[in-house]
Amino acid sequence: MGTRYEDQPAEHWAGAESLDPTPVWKQYLLVALLLFGGLIAVLVVSVLAILPQIVTPPALVPGDRLVLAIGELPAAGAPPKLIGVPLLGADREFWLVQPAKGEVYAFRRAWSLQADSGVACAIEMMGLASVQQRTFIASCRDGHAPTFSGAGRTFEGGGRDLDQYLVSVSDDRLIVNLSRLVRASERTTAPVPTGIPQPQQP
Predict the structure, then answer these.
(1) Which of 2, 64, 84, 106 is the most buried (most CB within 10 A)?
(2) Please, are residues 140 and 113 in contact by the beta-carbon 8 Å criterion?
(3) Domain check: are 31 and 73 in the same one?
């Protein structure tokens, strides 16, 4: 059996067209199209990233980011402000509050007793209560009415804190990311140990 090229039958020989390379202009066109597509993708991502910084507040930009003027932010220690209709639907309303200088929260108005139980309560402001103490109260269908501080902390040992949206603040505006809801986990109280002798009072 021959192993040389000329020893192979003619029908096994490759035709002359197999030696022709892909035309160079097609390769250049493919590279140009890939570069152009990459540039377009980078441009779109860049515009979406800086959009909250260039729009005029109030505005809801792609990515569910709500841009508000800095004047909408309550002063430190002032009562919270409800942000909702017509900027947002009733299901995404939130309380904007600054219990202390530099501590800014956006607490979702809809809240549930358990994180996975669906919406059962509406968060309301407690009159003129201090934002350092009892600021919010939940109005639940079952009559339950837990209270919360201005920082969203529950006053019930086994309850849940308020759910909140992520907020970023700059010199002239604040941005609330409605696509990033931080759900508070349920608190559990530590069991009281038994069988351990307690110290006697003198």
Answers:
(1) 106
(2) yes
(3) no
